[in-house]
Amino acid sequence: MEASYLEVLSPVIGLVINVLFQVLGFRYIANIGLLKSIFLGFAVGLFSVITLEAYGFFTMAKSTQDFIALIIVNLVTYSALGYCYFHFLNLGETARRIRIVRELYDSEGGLSLEGILERYSARDIVQKRFERLLNNRQIIEKDGRYYIGSPVMLVMANIMVAMKLLFLGKESEFDFHRE
Q1: What's the rounded Cα separation, in Å, for the pair 34 and 72?
Q2: In whole angstroms, what is the distance from residue 144 CA to residue 133 CA?
Q3: DSSP H helix total and E strand total for the chain
Q4: d(CA 106, CA 91)
Q5: What is the three-class DSSP state of 20?
Q6: pTM for the whole thing?
Q7: What confidence tens digit (pLDDT) does each residue in 95-138 have?
Q8: Number of CB atoms found within 10 A of residue 3's CB
Q9: 33-38 long-range CB contacts below 8 Å, 24 or more apart?
Q10: Is the pLDDT of residue 174 over 80?
Q11: Distance CA 107, CA 96 (A)
Q12: How many angstroms separate the Cα of 141 from the Cα of each of 32, 125, 137, 160, 179?
């Protein structure tokens, strides 16, 4: 099978389109929010990869077997690139270490440990995350108890656990080190 540049670059082109649509969606679509803009970008990029692969199939005489193999490889590659982009955004948005370092840099006189702990109390962090989950209807509250509202985050969490098991051999970074 002779590969064209289009076949090789379609996951990268899809990622570029993903990033462009995510940024534009987040900046210019009212009330879309970061997570929804990431989903939008990923979906448009995925559609682009599928479109490029279909174009390649119809314009370059390829067997159906070659097309299926190539689209599977390129969709997996694009998904991996999209996954990396998601976590790149997630690091900058939610990682406390990065936020603490940025706050220390912005603070001319430095910050005391007490001041940092006051800003980052576990209770406040959990409360903010619960508010975000409730506002996005990812969890719901009934009679003082919390339940899964939208299964999207649960699916994402299960995928993360599966990937950690596959690549790291453990479900969580809090699992005991296995020797």
Answers
A1: 28
A2: 15
A3: 7, 2
A4: 19
A5: helix
A6: 0.64
A7: 777 888 888 999 888 889 888 888 877 788 888 888 888 888 88
A8: 11
A9: 33/136, 34/89, 34/93, 35/136, 38/85, 38/86, 38/89
A10: no
A11: 16
A12: 23, 19, 10, 25, 41
- Three-state DSSP class for residue 82: helix
Report how far residue 49's alpha carbon sits from residue 14's, in angstroms, rounded to the nearest whole number: 5
Q: How far apart are CA 70 and CA 62, in angstroms?
A: 10
Token output for 86: 């998601």
What is the rounded end-to-end Cα distance, in angstroms, of the chain?
44
Sequence ranges of the domains in the chain: 5-97, 121-168
- H/E element holding 139? strand 139-142
The b/e string for 100-113 (b: 16+ C-beta within 10 A; e otherwise) is eeeeeeeeeeeeee
Model confidence over 46-89: pLDDT tens digits?
Answer: 999 999 999 888 887 778 898 899 999 999 999 999 999 998 88
In which band, very low, low, confident or very high, does the pLDDT at 1 lie, cut at 50, 70 and 90?
very low
